[in-house]
Amino acid sequence: MLEVLSHPFMQRAVLAGVACALACSILSVYIVLKRMAFIGEGIAHSAFGGVALAILMGWNITITTMVFAVVVAILIGVTARDRRISEDSAIGIFLTTSMALGVVFLNIHRQFTADIFGYLFGNILAVDVSNLIAVAILAVVVIALVAVFYKELLFFTFDEEMAKASGMPTNLIYFLLLFLVSLTVVLSIKMVGLILVSALLIIPGAAALLVTRSLRWMIIVAVILGVGAAISGLVGSYYLRLGSGAVMVLCLFAAFVVLRLVRALRRG
After folding, report:
1. Domain that holds residue 84
2. Which of 171, 199, 198, 196 is closest to 182 using CA atoms?
3. Mapped to the 3 state alphabet, what secondary structure does the chain carry?
4. Is position 165 within any domain?
C-alpha cells in the first residue's frame, strides 16, 4: 500500500475513488430500496449523448454532460410520475433516444477522439486536481443533503403513499434523488466510465440489504463496502495491470457474493 501511495497520481486516484464511492454508496441504498436501479443505469447511459454533444460543439464536457443528464433525469421523472407510462418504459425511451443522439453527434463530428473511450470505460489514474476537488464537493453535498433530509428520505423510501398523505412533498424528494444521481453519474464517469458507474450505484446498497434492514446501518455497510472496493480495486489494478474501474466493480461483486453466501449459511 505504501508503494502504491508513493506516486502522486495514485494518491489522487485513491482520494477520488473514496469520494466517488462515498457518494455512490449512499445513493445506492435509496436506489435499491426504491427499486430505481434502472434509473441509475438509464441516466448513466444517457450521459453518452451529453458527452458526444460536448465533443461536437467544443463545449466543456463535464458541464454539458451534467446539464444533459439532469434534463434527461427530469424528463424521465416527469414521464414516470404521470402514471400512464411506467418508470421502466420512460427510462427505456429516454435512454435509447439519448444514446441515438450521441451516435448522431459523433457521426456529424467525424473525428476520432480519445475522450469517448475514456468516458465509456473511465480512467481514474488520469484524475487531476480539478476532478478531485469536484468529486470531493459532490461527496460533501450528498452527505449533507442526506443528513439534512434523513427523516424525509426515510419516510419517502419505505412508505411513499403515507408520506404523501401526511403532506410531505414527495415529488420534490423524488426529483432531488434524480438530481443527485445525475450529478453523481456525471462526476463519477471520469473514474469508472459510463458502463460501470451504474454498478457503483446498485451493488453497495444491494449487498447492504443482505445483512441489515435498518436504513442507518444499510448506509454504513454500503459505504464500507464501496470505499473498501475503491481502495482494494485501485491497489489490485496497480499490481495486476488491469483497468481500475473494472477491478473496483469486481471487488464489489465479490463482496456481494460473500455476503450472499453468509446469509444463505445462516438461514441453512
Report:
1. 7-260
2. 198
3. CCCHHHCHHHHHHHHHHHHHHHHHHHHHHHHHHCCCHHHHHHHHHHHHHHHHHHHHHCCCHHHHHHHHHHHHHHHHHHHHHCCCCCHHHHHHHHHHHHHHHHHHHHHHHCCCCHHHHHHHHCCHHHCCHHHHHHHHHHHHHHHHHHHHCHHHHHHHHHCHHHHHHCCCCHHHHHHHHHHHHHHHHHHHHHHHCHHHHHHHCCHHHHHHHCCCCCHHHHHHHHHHHHHHHHHHHHHHHHHHCCCHHHHHHHHHHHHHHHHHHHHHHHHC
4. yes
Asked if residue 28 is part of any domain, the answer here is: yes
pLDDT at residue 228, rounded to an integer: 93
Q: What is the mean pLDDT of the chain?
A: 85
**Contact call for residues 35 and 177 (beta carbons, < 8 A):** no
Q: CA–CA distance from 33 to each of 204, 206, 221 (Å)?
A: 12, 8, 14
Residue 159, C-alpha cell as written in the block: 412508505
The answer to whether 2 and 119 have CB atoms below 8 angstroms apart is no
CATH at 84: 1.10.3470.10
Report if residue 265 sits inside a domain. Answer: no
Q: Which of 76-90, 105-119, 136-150 has the lowest mean pLDDT?
A: 105-119
CA atoms of 88 and 251, how far apart (whole Å) = 28
pLDDT at 221: 95
Q: Compute the radius of gyration of the chain from its Cα atoms.
A: 18
- Summarize pLDDT for 104-137 with one digit per residue, the tens: 988 887 765 656 666 777 778 778 888 788 888 8
Q: Is residue 1 part of a domain?
A: no
The total of structural domains in the chain comes to 1
